[in-house]
Amino acid sequence: MNNRRRPTMKDVAKHARVSVSTVSYVLNDSGPVAPERRERVLDAVRVLEYSPNESARSLKRRSASAIGLVVPDLTNQFFALIAEGVQGAAIERGVLVVLCAPEATPLTEAHHAKLLRSQRLDGVIYLTGTGTLPTAVLELARSGPVVLVDEQIPGFDLPAVVCDSRRGARAVARHVLEQGHRRITVIGGPVAMWTAEQRLAGYREAVAATGADPDSMPVLVGDYRQDSGFALARRALDVPAAHRPTALVCANDLMAIGALEYCKSAGLRVPEDVSIVGFDDLPVSALLTPRLTTVRQPAREMGAEAANCLLDILAKDDGNPLPSGPAVLSTSVEIRESVAPPAGSP
Amino acid sequence: MNNRRRPTMKDVAKHARVSVSTVSYVLNDSGPVAPERRERVLDAVRVLEYSPNESARSLKRRSASAIGLVVPDLTNQFFALIAEGVQGAAIERGVLVVLCAPEATPLTEAHHAKLLRSQRLDGVIYLTGTGTLPTAVLELARSGPVVLVDEQIPGFDLPAVVCDSRRGARAVARHVLEQGHRRITVIGGPVAMWTAEQRLAGYREAVAATGADPDSMPVLVGDYRQDSGFALARRALDVPAAHRPTALVCANDLMAIGALEYCKSAGLRVPEDVSIVGFDDLPVSALLTPRLTTVRQPAREMGAEAANCLLDILAKDDGNPLPSGPAVLSTSVEIRESVAPPAGSP
DNA sequence: TTGTAAGCGTTATCAT
DNA sequence: ATGATAACGCTTACAA
Q1: What is the pLDDT of residue A318?
Q2: Minimal CA–CA distance to A295: which of A283, A280, A277?
Q3: Which of A22, A265, B82, B170 fits B202 for a cystine, CB–CB 3.0-4.6 Å?
Q4: In this complex, which residue's CA is closest to the C1' atom of nucleotide D9?
């Protein structure tokens, strides 16, 4: 039914009885136009419901006005929040955000590199999430601007937006120690990941600050996923009560949730028998019973910051990343009811 | 540093000592090419890391190979799952998904209409979520193909992918009734929404099937958001115990979660004092204590289905929606521990 | 102030 | 089997 060809600038020009360049001048105000003719043009635009063909524009100006957002798992609210932040900031600047959720597609890095090279995407915002090989990311960065979120690749200064994980980790660990906990087990993230390393360092700093030896604190290595939290909680807690840690410090909320689940299934009470803390402050963490003590990361802001960072790079008279260090946003500890003094303390 | 112009087809042609048309023939195999020259071309492509400029392609073929995904709230896992489904199906067919998260941007409908008209988007997948005015959507649909997900606009047959909400609602209500509950209060969704209406109808059918009068079942109208679940649970439950409903049937999980929260805050035990059921089967619902009895909607599949539906419409030698009814996927009830017989039953 | 015309990088139609 | 060449719809010198 609706088979009318979409109007082009030529149509507008004809309707307004001016030349195409005049139309262009009006639309971008990139040239002088007599007020009366400008009106005619705007009228024609309205009447024909004209809006300029973006493919043609892109072709001309050699940029797609679109950026890619690579996110490993949208159902993870931390990522969803970042995505919203990215989207908001980008739309504000007239740039579209293309969703790239690898999921089960291993072809991704190459795929995105191609998207960059074919100028469908001007740049990419990359959330590595539960771990991508740094080499893949670096490879991708060869094809166009890439901004990392919540991750860094030491040695190569790709622009990145991160949180002060270390400070947050130190703070939350200090809190646990202040409650009197001494037998603490850490459930850490993948060793290859920068955030995991930072958080672990923070935990250890807090222990060191008490005069104790950080090496005496057991660290189990997880993968930031809920399942590994469950499995490692079992490993940590399924021992004689006398040796059992009184607190489990998890490097993210998902693993903390897994740990909580294990405790439930094993009949351990939280926080009476064991305290659990997380990291991220996912919205869901507030819904759990007991509520999780955790570290808040300003996810949405990180997304917005990343988008702006990328767009600035793109705006910079078509250039390369400015060699400034990563933008660092700060974290804050959210203390909730899942940390209590260890059993047997006064 | 990386200031080399991206290679064009011309460069490839020169490098391979053939004409541009030959290159094009090879790349799309749209013409006969001698095997030996084809090799030369492919080599050149590899060497130069050429990949065709998509803006130029789009311009030529008058399609963007991109669709929009309008989603009200990504942190809602139901939507996140749908988004993943859409993305997966689209990428499979070589189409990009542009994320459009209205958030606080009221300019959206007009904005998307423009994106369609300017051919940045070939079509749009629309999740109305917690309620958009049907008129806005219809207005949008004037500018290009639109597929609705989890919503329908009665009277206008926009293509849509929905679930059999009514059946699911009937089933879950039947389950509650079978447990012996008789004082049931419904916390429904926004009356303007099709899903809300369907679910309510399902609940009432189940009641009617027992021989009781559906009108005797109180219905409170919420907005599908957690807060309204909390507020309405208070309204339903903050009455003398003798009149208090023994079960709260919520039209979605978010409101059920809100209701659960209220119960906690009010010291009511779930499911001993009051049973709560939801609708959606969000991943988070499985983490709650007690776990929520709910109705599973195949969210990811719905997303994929919607994407395929839209892409089929677009493929149809550039046409209009086929006037078939909406695709209907089915729901299934997930029974979990938040439903128990009412207090005082044998 | 306005219009003409030359690209932007492809694809597709035509000769060769 | 191959190669000119004319669109596609827009921007932007350059002319008028």
Answers
A1: 57
A2: A280
A3: B170
A4: A56
Residues of B in contact with A288 (CB under 8 A): 287-289
Residues A243 and A186 in one domain: yes
Q: Are residues B169 and B278 in the same domain?
A: yes
Q: Which of the two residues, A112 and A326, has the higher pLDDT score?
A: A112
Domain range spanning residue B191?
165-297
pLDDT exceeds cutoff 90 at A51: yes
Is strand D less than 7 A from the beta carbon of A56?
Answer: yes
Question: Do B172 and B293 fall into the same domain?
Answer: yes
The rounded distance, in Å, linking the Cα atoms of B4 and A168 is 43
In a domain, A291, yes or no: yes
| Residue B86: burial class (beta carbons within 10 Å; 0-12, 13-18, 19+) | buried
Asked if residue B176 and residue B288 are part of one domain, the reply reads yes
Which of A6, A54, A80 is closest, CB to CB, to B75? A80
Chain D nucleotides covered by protein, CB below 7 Å: 1-5, 7-13
Chain C nucleotides close to protein (CB under 7 A) are 1-5, 7-13
CATH number of residue A279's parent domain = 3.40.50.2300
pLDDT(A243) > 60 = yes
State pLDDT tens for residues A307-340. Answer: 999 999 999 855 566 666 677 777 777 777 778 8
Answer whether residue A340 is part of any domain: no
Give yes or no for a contact between A246 and A268, defined as CB atoms under 8 angstroms apart: no
Q: What is the pLDDT of residues A193-220, one digit of tens each?
A: 999 999 999 999 999 999 999 999 999 9
Q: Is residue B337 part of a domain?
A: no
Query: Residue B278: what residue type?
Result: G
Q: Mean pLDDT over residues B314-322, rounded?
A: 71
C1’ D16 / CA A316, Å: 36
Alpha helices in B157-219 (DSSP H): 165-178, 194-209
B245-274: pLDDT as tens digits? 999 999 999 999 999 999 999 999 999 999
The token pair that represents A79 in the structure block: 């990522």
The pLDDT value recorded for residue A152 is 87
Each residue's pLDDT tens digit, B233-250: 999 999 999 999 999 999
Q: Which of B59, B69, B100 sits opposite A56 (nearest CB)?
A: B59
Give the closest of B51, B77, B88 to A118, CB-based: B51
Å between CA of B167 and C1' of C13? 56
Task: Answer yes or no: do A211 and A152 share one domain.
Answer: no
Tell me, yes or no, whether A1 lies in a domain: no
A278 C-beta neighbours (distance < 10 Å), count? 30
Question: Looking at chain A, how many residues does it have?
Answer: 346
Mark whether B278 and B308 lie in a shared domain. Answer: no
Distance, CA of B143 to C1' of D5, in Å = 34
CATH assignment of the domain containing B21? 1.10.260.40
> Which residues make beta-bridge pairs with B161?
B149, B327
Is the pTM here over 0.85, yes or no?
A: yes
What gap in Å lies between CA A309 and CA B75, rounded to an integer? 23
Closest-CA residue of chain B to A289: B289
Sign of CA dihedral A106, A112, A114, A120: positive
Q: Looking at beta carbons, which residues of chain A come within 8 Å of B99?
A: 69, 83, 87, 97-99
Distance from CA of A89 to the nearest CA of B (A): 11
Residue B96 is nearest to which of A56, A59, A120, comparing CB atoms? A120
pLDDT exceeds 80 at position A150: yes
Question: Cis (ω within 30 of 0) for the bond into A346?
Answer: no
| Count of structural domains, chain A | 3
Q: What confidence category does residue A54 fall into, taking pLDDT thresholds of 50, 70 and 90?
A: very high
Sorted by sequence, the CB contacts under 8 Å of residue A78 that are 6+ apart come out as A253, A280, A282, A297, A299
CB contact under 8 A, A99 and B97: yes
Question: Are A103 and A154 found together in one domain?
Answer: yes
Mutate which of B116, B120, B337 to disrupt the A interface (most A C-beta within 10 Å)? B120
- Is residue B248 located within the same domain as residue B305? no
The confidence score (pLDDT) of residue B112 equals 92
